[in-house]
Specification:
The protein has 388 residues and is of the alpha/beta class. Helices cover 42% and strands 15% of the residues.
């Protein structure tokens, strides 16, 4: 079977790697450096299992900049391009997804399009009507950054937003490629599948926000947040997962997906969804206030990344903190070894840990790191369990 994956981000690359063990897979991307790295079996993203598979498996995987050759004769074309929430206009920017759909339509291909990108509720039906086509399926992904291939190999569930013969064929394709026995494959209509994705991510954001607000309460009242969290989480109905305080949820999915779900609630009664979105800003304001209460002349930001073992800082809560510090008239310096530039957001980047420590009055870190034992300056973090 020939399968084409569009987009070599963590969703697309992990899926292409997974399927290329047993199928002939092409991955199309617009960045030449990514294409070259993949063809040389160098992962352009930080993912332990992708790197392992690149080194150890004989993958039938070809990266290309030529979409026509990649799309031609493909049984499935899987779209994994980025979509972003446009806060000014109040809608999801799905132009990258629609661009690929139009390319497929213009090539008059007998293929099935599978959308893995996050899309608004009702998007697939609107596209079918707009272009008078029927060969589109939505199948949401539930992957963690840095563990995307692992989560494809051992999925919590597989959801396919269609009940046609081709949809069942695609569900079987994913099921046979994974290593988890008896994984649940659930078929439903596209609109319900689109809702599953947004509601699942919003629930995760709710849980992150809950423990962050618990931590805020404990910090303000001078209580032991760890004791409260562990006492609460001993209830088996609550559990010990996703309970480590942070500066706020961020990354590829949660910020945009919560806002998109909220926009889908127009003219529908709700309180909770809006509160989840607002809670994240409230948490970042509180963190900034606690740091500024120390009256620092220079704030050091230890890492821009959202979480440990990450290689990006898209929508990281730390970015909003930097803006808050700068607007408060505080000088900010950044330690971020992933960046080889000398400046970011108008702030100096210092990638010598000794120099970084000496220059700061307080060091702000979303996640703990073992190198902190070498710092002599005050370190502000709300990381209790030294994990994400």
């Amino acid at each position: 079977m020939k399968i084409t994956v569009v987009g070599a981000g963590y969703v697309g690359l992990s899926l292409a790697t997974l399927l290329s063990v047993k199928n002939n897979v092409y991955i199309f991307d617009i960045l030449p450096e990514k294409v070259e790295m993949i063809n040389n079996r160098i992962s352009p993203i930080n993912d332990e299992y992708i790197e392992k598979y690149f080194n150890e498996k004989n993958l039938n995987l070809t990266a290309t900049l030529d979409y026509e050759s990649a799309f031609s004769e493909a049984d499935f074309i899987i779209i994994c391009t980025p979509t972003n929430y446009n806060e000014i206009e109040g809608y999801f920017d799905t132009s990258s997804v629609e661009d690929i759909i139009l390319k497929v339509i213009n090539m008059h291909l007998d293929t099935t399009i599978v959308i893995k990108s996050t899309i608004p509720v009702g998007f697939v039906n609107s596209i079918k009507k707009k272009y008078n086509i029927s060969n589109i399926i939505f199948s949401p992904e539930f992957l963690r950054e840095g563990k995307a291939l692992y989560d494809n190999l051992y999925p919590s569930r597989i959801i396919v937003g269609d009940k046609t013969k081709e949809a069942i064929r695609f569900g079987d394709l994913l099921r046979k490629a994974c290593l988890k026995p008896d994984v649940v494959v659930k078929y439903m209509d596209s609109t319900e599948a689109e809702a599953v994705k947004l509601f699942a991510n919003t629930y995760l954001a709710l849980r992150v926000s809950f423990f962050n607000e618990l931590d805020t309460y404990a910090e303000v009242k001078g209580l032991n947040a760890k004791d409260i969290i562990e006492g609460v989480c001993l209830d088996p109905r609550i559990g010990e997962h996703y309970n480590n305080p942070s500066f706020g949820y961020g990354g590829y999915c949660l910020p945009k997906d919560t806002k998109q779900l909220l926009s889908n609630y127009r003219n529908i009664p709700q309180n909770l969804i809006e509160a989840i979105v607002k809670s994240n800003d409230t948490r970042k304001n509180h963190i900034a206030d606690m740091v500024l209460s120390k009256n620092p002349g220079v704030v050091g930001i230890y890492r821009l990344i959202m979480k440990s073992n990450s290689d990006n800082f898209r929508d990281s809560s730390v970015l909003d903190l930097i803006n808050r510090f700068i607007s408060g008239g505080i000088k900010v310096i950044i330690y971020e070894p992933m960046m080889d530039s000398f400046e970011f957001m108008g702030c100096e980047i210092v990638n010598d840990l000794v120099k970084f420590n000496d220059m700061c009055d307080v060091i702000v870190a979303n996640r703990y790191d073992s190198c902190f034992k070498f710092f002599t300056k005050d370190i502000y973090t709300r990381d209790i369990y030294n994990r994400d």
